[in-house]
Specification:
Strand order of the largest sheet: 1-8-2-3-7-4-6-5-9-10-11
Number of domains: 2
Shape: globular
Bound molecules: threonylcarbamoyladenylate, magnesium ion
CATH superfamily of the largest domain: DHBP synthase
Structural class: alpha/beta
Number of helices: 11
Largest sheet: 11 strands, mixed
Number of strands: 15
Distance between the termini: 41 Å
Length: 319
């Protein structure tokens, strides 16, 4: 199959109507999309990514008003959050209606819904009479793509079309939340920070998932992993431990070029939004270096620093 990259929304729409896959840009990461109401089309996502089918997908719609078409209940707290953050990097897990096929939800009774904050994809969604199921457009377990080029590098020949919406402006996946007993519960840290959530709803509970926690089965512990082994922690200690090795270094503000063969500084200005935007591209670059090991620095534990640390922890190799 030939993979074409372009900005033709009608072409993308035609393919999706015909049950084909299209990579779509969002403000967080690129998604690998299919008609969420067509189980055969959705199955192709799992085959193409090599992703286990117990892992549920996010369903993308063009407007919050669409939620009630696919969710049997939309709590007031979700409406409050949506007013503030959607379209944007946040996903709501809600009780599902029967029109959502089991393959989308991993057989569960809930569906994850999101309005992506990207003009091209919102336009595409508003032209379709079905929502789009889309996980990140990377092979299962690898680094998420934040540029059309990254998708092409990994899925060339496997999908017919990549809708090119440029670089993803947030750069890290959406925050996944639900409402339990009148309280907002966070399943995955992402583009909307905990502080921003707390500002709007007062209090939130963290239930960040891993493979031993079934609430959000996609949150496997080993994820976002480069091919080169990665270690995560305090940079001084890591530098000492790996002094004899050919190193690549991922750092927040400090330049380590003299200590390694490849260094990516995510934000010289110390801006966590900029760091998040640069994270996955930087990891890819380091993974394409000749290093034996990637050393990644622990980020400040506030704002998007928490989501960045979560991704690096999952990318890290066990000791
Ligand atoms: O930013 C994003 O969220 C991107 C873009 C493409 O929208 N998508 C994305 O999809 O990151 P994926 O499949 O890589 O991650 C989906 C996350 C997983 O952690 C999964 O467990 C969780 O959402 N999820 C999906 N459906 C769920 C459900 N019904 N209940 C609990 N968690 C769910
Ligand atoms: Mg993913």
């Amino acid at each position: 199959m030939q993979t074409i990259t372009g900005t033709n929304i009608s072409k993308a729409a035609d393919l999706l109507v015909n049950g084909e896959l299209v990579a779509i840009p969002t403000e967080t990461v690129y998604g690998l999309a299919a008609n969420a109401l067509n189980a055969d089309a959705v199955l192709k996502i799992f085959e193409t990514k090599g992703r286990p089918t117990f892992n549920p997908l996010i369903v993308h719609v063009h407007d919050v008003n669409e939620f009630s078409k696919y969710a049997s209940e939309v709590p007031d707290l979700v409406r409050t959050l949506a007013e503030k953050f959607s379209p944007g990097p946040i996903t709501y897990v809600l009780p599902k209606k029967n029109n959502i096929p089991d393959i989308v939800t991993g057989g569960g009774e809930t569906v994850a819904l999101r309005v992506p904050g990207h003009a091209l994809t919102l336009k595409l969604l508003s032209q379709l009479d079905f929502p789009l199921a889309a996980p990140s457009a990377n092979p299962f377990g690898y680094i998420s793509p934040v540029d059309a080029r990254h998708v092409k590098d990994q899925l060339d020949g496997k999908i017919p079309y990549i809708l090119d919406g440029g670089q993803c402006m947030i750069g890290i996946e959406s925050t996944v939340v639900t409402v339990i007993d009148g309280k907002v519960v966070v399943y995955r840290l992402g583009g909307v920070s905990l502080e921003d959530l707390v500002d709007v709803v007062g209090e939130v509970e963290l239930r960040i998932n891993n493979s031993s926690n079934p609430n959000s089965p996609g949150q496997l512990k080993s994820h976002y992993a480069p091919r080169i082994p990665l270690r995560f922690g305090k940079m001084d200690a890591l530098l000492e431990e790996f002094s004899g090795k050919k190193k690549a270094i991922l750092s927040f503000t400090k330049n380590y070029s003299d200590d390694c063969i490849a260094n990516q500084v995510l934000s010289y200005a110390g801006d966590l939004h900029e760091a998040a935007r640069n994270l996955f591209t930087a990891l890819r670059k380091l993974d394409n270096s000749e290093a034996e090991i990637i050393l990644a620095e622990k980020f400040p534990e506030h704002g998007l620093g928490l989501a960045i640390n979560d991704r690096l922890e999952r990318a890290a190799t066990e000791k």
